[in-house]
Write a structure and sequence with these properties.
The protein is an alpha+beta fold and 153 residues long. It has a domain at 22-128. The protein is built from 2 helices and 5 strands. It has helices at 22-29, 107-125, and strands spanning 35-39, 49-56, 63-72, 80-90, 93-102. It has a 5-stranded antiparallel beta sheet, with helices on one face. It is elongated, with a radius of gyration of 23 Å. The relative contact order is 0.17.
Amino acid sequence: MIEEQDHTEPDWNNPLPLSLTPAMLIHSLMTTASAVHTGWSSCIDEQLVVSSLMSLDDTVGNYVRLVEQEFYEDEDPDAAWHDWTLELRIANVLISGHWQVAITAPPMEWTWYAKEAERAFERASLLVGRRVRKGLMVDDPTPEQLPPRASRH
């Protein structure tokens, strides 16, 4: 006896059961990171944060956060670093990837690390049902000031 299948579409809001591990997420999202780790609490020092962007799953509290922070090494106070941290919280587990570059590094290195971290943030945001797109900004041209007219009468 063949069971009849329901020929309607599955509900778009039906949860999909997935089995993810921190190792799988690190492998797929943070391969180019300088350092990766897991934890129960955030390693981000809010006093060092330069910028922060978050994708949030409103229903269960999972989130993806991209944070830029700058810091000096304790051992060498002359060594300053810029750090892009991708922080991914699923349930009570935090997975963090760091892309770090010396403040004195050439702009090409800064661009590469920034792009890698941003790309990881874009991909990770899909896990919480968010789409990330680059923002567009249109600069209006500044009106040119005409010099005052000199007239002789």
